[in-house]
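Q&A log
Question type: sequence-to-structure
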Amino acid sequence: MCTKYYYELANGDPEGAFIEAIHFGDWKAFIALLSVQEDINAIDNGGCDWTPLMWAVHEESMEMVKVLVEVGADVNYRASDPEEFALSEAIYCDNQEIFNYLEPLTSPELQEIARKILKDKLGNG
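Response status: OK
Response body:
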């Protein structure tokens, strides 16, 4: 595993190391660190209040998104901003593939919010 993750691990922050692996798109570290996550929905402590799933969407890693969903990531988690959740992040990142994957898994309430965000983004709001 790359040394950039050891700092977080040495400081007792496997969640931080996991999010770093997502940021760097490091598949091997992602898989290795996945096994030591106590809470797959742990919120980052960097101020965004995002889950690993939200970061994987932001980094546009469909493979990581799928793995996180398969192991129980909460697709309906909302950050401190109620318009920030995994599906809305797919809209902000213009990632149709991830949007199409997450939409049927997302609650009807959040699907409705996502449709509004999409309309606003396209200038049809």
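Response note: The radius of gyration is 15 Å.
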